[in-house]
Amino acid sequence: MRNRPAIIALAAAAAIIVNLIVHAAGRAAGGSFRFTNGGVTNEVDAVTVAGFSAVPLLIGLLVVAMLSRLGPWVARVAVVVAPVLAVVTIFVMTVPADLDRASTVALALCHLTLIPISVRAIRLISGAAARPALAPTG
C-alpha cells in the first residue's frame, strides 16, 4: 500500500476496533472503568477509548508522514519513540488513576495494542515515502 492517508486511516481504525474489543473484555471481566479526579467520579467509556486510541496515533503518524521526506532516520526514530510513549503513558495516565484491577489491566492493554499498530503503520509510511507512486503515462 503506497497511499499514506489510507495507511494512517486504516491504522487509526484498527486501533479503535482492537481497543474497543479490549474495553469490552475489560467490562466483561468486571471492570467499571470509573476513577475519581478532584473529587469527581469519571468513567472511561467506549467513546473515550476510541478517541484516546485514534487521536494520538493520528497525530504521530501524520508527523511521521510529513517528516519522512527528510530521510529514513525519521522512521527509525519513530519506531522507537512510539512504543516508548505507549508504555510511558501507562505509568502516567493509567496506573495513577484509582481504577479497579480489571479496568487498569484493560486500559494498559489498550496502550500496548498501539505498539504493533503504530510500528507497522510507520514502516508502511516510510516504505510509501521511499517508493513514490508511478506517474501516469500518457
UniProtKB/TrEMBL annotation:
Query: Where exactly are the transmembrane stretches of this chain?
Result: 46-67, 74-96, 102-122
The signal peptide annotation in the UniProt record is 1-24
The protein's superkingdom reads Bacteria
| Keywords tagged on the record | Membrane, Signal, Transmembrane, Transmembrane helix
Give any Pfam family that matches.
DUF6069
InterPro entries this protein is in? DUF6069
Q: What's the protein name?
A: DUF6069 family protein
